[in-house]
Structures are given as C-alpha cells and as structure tokens.
Amino acid sequence: MLLLLPGRAPAGLLQPDDLEYRGAFRLPDAPGDYGWEWGGHGLAYYPGGDPGGPADGYPGSLFGTGHDWYQQVSEVSIPVPVVSAGKNLEELNTAITLQPFADIKGGLFPAFEIPYCDLEYLPPRGGQGSGKLYFCWHDHLQIAASFPTHGWCETDLLAPQSAGPWYVGAYDTYSTTDYLFAVPEDWAAAHVGGRSLATGRFRDGGQGGQGPCIFALAPWQHGDPPPAQAVLSAVPLLLYSTAYWDDPHGGAYAMDRYHHSDMWAGAAWLTAGDDSAVVFVGTKGRGECWYGNQDGPCLDCEDRGWWSTYFDAEMIFYDPADLAAVAAGTMQPYEPQPYAVMNLDHLLYHVVSPQMRHHVKAASFDRAGGLLYVFEPLADSDRPLVHVWKVLGGAPTPPPSPTPAPSPRTVAARSGDYDGDGRDEIAVFRPATGMWAARGLGRASFGGPGDVPVPGDYDGDGTASLAVFRSAGGLWAVRSATRFSFGSPEDAPVPGDYDGDGTCEAAVFRGSSGLWSVRGLTLAFLGGPGDAPVPGDYDGDGADDPGVFGPDRGEWAVRGITRAAFGGPGDLPAAGDCDGDGTAEIGIFRPASGLWAIRETTRFRLGSADDWAAPADFAGSGRDEAAIFRAPNGLWAIRNLTRAHFGGAGDAPATR
Question: pTM of the full predicted structure?
C-alpha cells in the first residue's frame, strides 16, 4: 500500500526529471578467462584515472569487476556515451583498458561459490597518504552472520597492497556486504562523525532486511590501515525488518512495494548544487511474489528461489534528510521510504522477457562531473554495457511565477481513497510546487507546474496512488511505481477502470477528433471539439465507459449506452453514483447559481461561481456526495456531511 509521506517538501530533493540520460558505451575485449563476460557486480569511479584522455566532458576512469567466477578488477577509460535510437551496439563507443584484470583480494577471503562484491574510490581520508580503492566481498549464502568482509587497496592493480578484512560492527553480512558508495564529506561530518563511506546489501527473501540497507563507515578512523579482523564502528542509516521469525519487530517494517524477489545491486549518493538524493538501482519484483520457479510456487524444482509476475529495472530515491534524522535518533532506521521512482527498462538493451532478473547491477557517481554510471549485465554478448546519466538541478530556485488555478475541465482525478478505508479523502494538489495534501494523512511532493493530478488505484491494492499527467510530453508518472509516455499535448487525461479488473488504466481524450485511447486496451471515437470528457460506469457493469458532455448544446453521449439532453452553457459535468446503485448518473453543476441537477433524480443548491464540483464517496457509503471546493479560501462543503477548510488559492481538488 502506498501512503502519503507526512511533511515531505520538494526543496533540496533531486527528482527523476533531474537525471538526463546521456547514452551507453561498451567495454573492451580482454584476453584469457578473466574478461568482462558475466561481470558487472562492482563499479567505482576514479577521478585521477586516464589523465591524458581527451577533454570530452567525461574525465577520469572506471574500476570494475569482471567474470563473476573470479571477480578480478580492471580499469578502463570513459568514452563519450551514445544514445542509439535503435539500440545498435555498433553505434556505441568502446572503452580502452588502462589496467588489465588483476586479483586485488590479496588472499584475504576464502573461495566463494556465488560472490557478492563492490568497489568505491575515496580520496585520502584522515592521515592517509593516498586515495584508496575500497572493496567488500562475501558469498550469496553467508558463511556466518558476522564475518570480515571489507578492505582497501591502492589504485595500482599490479601492486594493490590490499588491507583487511574487517567486520562492519556486529551487523549481519546479509545487510552489509554488496554495494559501496561515497557519502558527501560535509554531510558525513555533520551527521555521522565523518564516516563518509557507505555500505549495505539487499538479500532476497528479506534475510538482511525487507528493503535496501545503509551503514556509514570510516575505516581510516581505526588505523592506517586497521588491523586484520578489526571491527569497524558503523552507523545504521537504513535497516528494515528481516523476514526471520525472531526479528525484533516481527517483520513489520518493509520498504513500500517490497517483494522478496527484489534485487538492489547498486547505490549512489547524488548531489547537484544544493539538491541531493540517495538512489538505489536494481530489479524490482512486480505483481505477485512467490517462492519456487518462474512457473509458480514449488519446493522441489529447478531455478528455485524468489520470483514475481514480472520484473522492472528501477532507480528509487531516498531523502538524505530522513537519513540525517535516523542518525540523530529522531527516526528509526526502518522508517525512511523512497519518495520517487524511475523505471529504466526503456533504456536497456537486453530485457528479453517479463520474468528476466538482473536488469541492472553496480553503480558509481562522479560527484564533480555530476555523472552517474550503471552496469547493465549481459547486454553486449555476455559483457555489460555502461549507461550514463547527467545529474542536473542544483541551481537556485527562482521565485515561482503566479500559477493560474487549473480549469475545472483539466482536473482528471478519478480516485481519492488514499488509505484504503473505503472512503474518499478531502485532498488537494498544488501545481505550482507539486505538493499533494490529504486531510488527516499528510503531505507529499510529486509533480510540478503544468501537471494534472490523476490519482488512481493503478496497482489494484485498494488505495489511490499519487499520479500526474504532463501534457507537454504525454508523460504519466505514478509515485513509487512507474513512468511512461502516453498521449500528446492536445490530450486530456481520462484515467479509469475501463476493463473492470479493479485497477485504473491510463487513458486520454483528444477533443480535436473525439479519440479515446486507453493504454493497452482500445481506441474509440466519441465527442469532438468543445466537449468535456466524463468517463464513468453508466451501465453498472463494473467498468468505466467513455462519456462526453457538450455544454454549448447541453448534450450528453455515453458510448454504446445513451445520448441525452441535460444541462446547458456554463454548466460543468458532475456525474456520479448519487444513489448507491452501482451506476453513474448524469449530473451537472451550474456555478453561476450553485445549482446541482441529477437527471431523473433531484435538484438542489450547493456552492457558487468560485467553486469546483468535487463529488465523491466521502462517507464510505457506496454513494457519491455532492461537494464543492472553493480555491480562494480552501473551503470544502460536502452536502449533508461537513464543511472544512483545506487547501487554498491555486490548488486543485485531488479526489474524484
């Protein structure tokens, strides 16, 4: 269930739109058995690499791990990435080997059957005389709950002088040993005692936590180097409940949308000016989740493990302020939740089936250049590709220009039950800032100027998800779920449950031609220029029907059901199930006089010329109550129920 996060504000947070995709590049051939094939588990950006390279905007180099059987490390240059519209590998540039594959583990670790690892470079810390390449290694099936897993080495792969291994506090290796990433030094000094190296792991099945984990470390505070087997002090910043029977919280705390089959393989702390976000990249289970194989639940079968109906490559965004609150003790490590999500699959080259796992792996961030690098495994024959994003944002935010209140015809809210209790909430969306607020629940930031609120139950969990439609590019974005393009600048969003399956479908109405298009379902024509779209379940079959109201002629048309004359110029459509019989009734609201008229049922007065019509099931009775929202002062008036002030000038009602 996706709930509004209380008190969320947009200032200082990077959003998915702040990441500009720059393209991808290939990795070079390597002799012998230690090449890039089947690699991609570890990645680190090195600012001092390739000093003689071209001044092309992509300085430095990358250290990465090759074949998963050996996980030796090589250093490569960073060529200019290319966006290939046809995803043609031949159009991509190829990196150059700067240091060939070498084993940097230095005999510190035993042989692992299914090893997990990562790399991260940090410049000198404490009294160090040189920057270090930090590493961690452990097995998929842990040797022991507490095991020494971390170390560092020099950047010369032929003389690495590897040091370690060290324990991460007394924490479980299922929580600590996969990804590594740098923490901004000023943040680390302010909140975690200078611990500017972060580590963590997500172990499928919830064995290390039902979501990704973060621990802040400073190995240099324990010696240069710390002695072997040293226990590094660690500050937990993100740690959900495990799925174990003896979990102290009974497994109660999990990441939103959590699946046991999730795979969070890389992480980075992104910054751009004053804006920041902690992101995880990985493969997210969607739909149903089970233990067995891809065909369904089983205990004695091949490919046994955690599976889902389908998998998406995602980047999820966490607020660093939440992690600061955890460090300060004002939030628990299991409380932070992602505030945004970005689907990556449309950019990838090797997504071959809905149930394919491991869409993306390790990640690393060039903070000075604002460039994020992510491995896509097995995309170039058996070698990974490197995908690149430029992190924008960070410029001072100018004072917002006055944003006109949206026209009532542009509001497309289709559901307002944000907590799954069967009642629609009083809720508003503020386009000027992208703020959502639901009375009694909280606030969240999602969207921005020009966006139209389109909340709905897009995943069938019985609650409305925050969602917006951005007409400029036909973008639909559902918070913590998905983003896709559907529609054009001339279209009006008309989301609804058009197939009666209990989930909301994205849909658009094009007034110039009367086109209705429902994503993944159908095309139809109904209405034309000047008509207002009014979808609803007009025949009681459990599915929404396309409908239009022509105010210039007072005519209603519902596809395949009826045509009727009702209303006239100046009226706004206000259809709804006013009697609880499961069928939407044709109705109008006349702002000039406050008149409501429901065809063949009733007439009454509620509201005035400044008001929006916002009928919804506020009582949970199965019947829509007439309601108005008065934007100038935030007044809500719900007929026969209540009056309340919530919202204000420039807000739009965000209930159906």
Answer: 0.64
